[in-house]
Amino acid sequence: MAEQNLMEKLVSLAKRRGFVFQSSEVYGGLGSVWDYGPLGVALKRNVKDRWWHAMVQAREDIEGLDAAILMHPRVWEASGHVAGFTDPLVDCRTCKARFRADKLADARCPQKPSKVPGEHAACDLTEPRLFNLMFKTFMGPVEEQAAVVYLRPETAQGIYVNYQNVLTASRQKIPFGIAQIGKAFRNEITPGNFIFRTREFEQMEMQFFVRPGTDMEWFEQWRALRMQWHHDLGLTPSKLRWHEHGPTELAHYAKAAYDIEYEFAFGWQEIEGVHNRTDFDLARHQEYSGRKLEYFEQATGERYLPYIVETSAGADRVTLTVLADAYREEEVEGEVRVVLGFHPAIAPIKAAVLPLTKKDGLPEVAEGLYAELRRRVPVFYDDGGAIGRRYRRQDEVGTPWCITIDHDTLTDRTVTIRERDAMTQVRVGIDQVAGWVAERLGRPA
Ligand code: ATP
What we know:
By secondary structure, the chain is an alpha+beta fold. The protein folds into three domains: about 5-70 and about 135-325, Bira Bifunctional Protein, Domain 2 (BirA Bifunctional Protein, domain 2); about 85-130, no CATH class; about 350-440, Rossmann fold (3-Layer(aba) Sandwich). It is about 30% helix and about 30% strand. It has 13 helices and 25 strands. The strands form eight sheets. It has a seven-stranded mixed beta sheet, with helices on both faces. A five-stranded mixed beta sheet has the order 22-21-23-24-25, with helices on both faces. The protein has a three-stranded antiparallel beta sheet with strand order 5-4-8. The longest helix is centred in the first third of the chain and has 20 residues, at about 40-55. The radius of gyration is 26 Å and the shape is globular. The relative contact order is 0.11. It binds adenosine-5'-triphosphate. Adenosine-5'-triphosphate binds near residues 186, 273 and 316. Adenosine-5'-triphosphate binds near residues 188, 314, 316 and 317.
């Protein structure tokens, strides 16, 4: 499979089978904004649930939060976003294409031939202009400077300004963390690659508050845990790697930063960042709000501003990673079979119930099993067409198990369970199916 082709295939499969649609498609679409269809919303929710389970539910030292998208405008002055959340924008004077100067590889102008026949000359670029990525809007009826509010460009700030509230309410002690999943907005100059870089997206962020001096130790711990999480999602380990931010890449707030990168068809790209943000954010909010944000450590009687280790992943980006990593085509009996080989815990549909025929009482038995299973896990019922075709339809959306009800079921009360990857089949008692599936799903997704 030509690698470049993979993204086109994914976009087309995603639309056809209801994972992701272009936003406002009937109006010709809105640039780099996407909607999740029935299977996509289930897949993305499973990714988020797994994150929440690992980061909040399974830990005693992390609390959850859901802060509002709109925040006091001073937050973004304190955080440095008003002054510094900019990307350098360059235009080509000839073809009018727009680029991010820091991501510019080798821009070729489609309108200017080069000296080499059949090739295009380099774009004629303007000087970079700094462009703020925050979406601005107005609160209340009057569109004036005093009423400006921003759509948050990251969820982290909602955590920082709530850190004392959470600390007091939860009676946690440092070290402890606050986790949040929510929308963020960035007016990206060059969005693209499907749901990789969009203007509206969801982040899964956790901020871990630690005693200064212990920050690098925690940073290393969180690095290890976060990489493990991606492995546990079922992603191919050889397609994951670390990228360390060099001195020129480090954000203004960071002491150390590493990205987890995945090897997409369009190259190695960041899917999550782990950052040591020091006490930068709390110090700034303390300064701008005038409110003391120090922590009082009872054991030592000391007061200090905690350091923060952040883990920041994009829910949409991880969902794209899961889709790209799961996609494969194989030849089976002379035909191409498309499979999304999801880890069962994140597969949108866990099992399909398939009566072999629509007669002889098979549908009644199948419907009974379907009703029983769908109370516990997402299942799909399909009685249309040849059984091989029905298997293929499930393979294509990554359903791990197909359960077929046939004539033997009527006499011996067993069904066939066919496994998606190896395509092996086993006979299981119809009363054991729910337990069989639950056992293989293990921990709730
Ligand atoms: P980039 O350099 O690619 O613009 P960034 O370094 O600014 O990204 P962070 O601010 O560290 O990204 O954001 C943390 C995570 O949020 C990223 O790893 C990514 O998964 C997600 N993310 C950031 N921007 C976008 C976007 N425009 N669309 C989708 N996800 C995004």
